[in-house]
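Backbone-to-sequence.
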């Protein structure tokens, strides 16, 4: 309450491809550019246009691991913003197409008393979101940023 300005320690990364939300989310967590994350992903055989990147979790876990970021082994159902860990990948805009689940990846961050979501969607006016009532997560993957705590 000593300042009106909210400090954002983790910076948003905007996706440069229509389906690059997973790459942008990992880039934000790792503190690298979209281009850097895309190069590492390509080295792992992971590409934004591959629907497995936003319909399964193996690719994003492999990309996190390539940056030295540990993730929980499973997904946890979203029960409320208060229950989230300090850093998590959230699946939002969850929907089914031809019996296959798809979603949009975003990053939840809790730092001191600041809670926010980094949303990589290019058309947003502000990629740092605090409009939690409008964001409808289905589940999340808890992560630990590189460098620990």
């Amino acid at each position: 309450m000593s300042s009106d300005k909210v400090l954002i320690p983790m910076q948003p990364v905007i996706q440069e491809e229509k389906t690059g939300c997973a790459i942008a989310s990992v880039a934000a967590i790792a503190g690298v550019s979209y281009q850097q994350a895309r190069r590492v992903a390509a080295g792992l055989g992971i590409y934004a246009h591959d629907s497995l990147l936003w319909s399964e979790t193996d690719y994003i876990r492999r990309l996190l691991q390539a940056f030295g970021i540990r993730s929980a082994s499973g997904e946890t159902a979203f029960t409320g913003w208060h229950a989230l860990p300090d850093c998590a990948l959230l699946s939002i805009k969850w929907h089914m197409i031809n019996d296959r689940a798809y979603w949009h990846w975003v990053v939840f961050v809790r730092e001191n008393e600041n809670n926010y979501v980094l949303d990589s969607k290019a058309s947003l006016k502000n990629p740092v979101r605090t409009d939690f009532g409008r964001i409808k997560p289905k589940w999340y993957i808890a992560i630990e940023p590189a460098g620990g705590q």
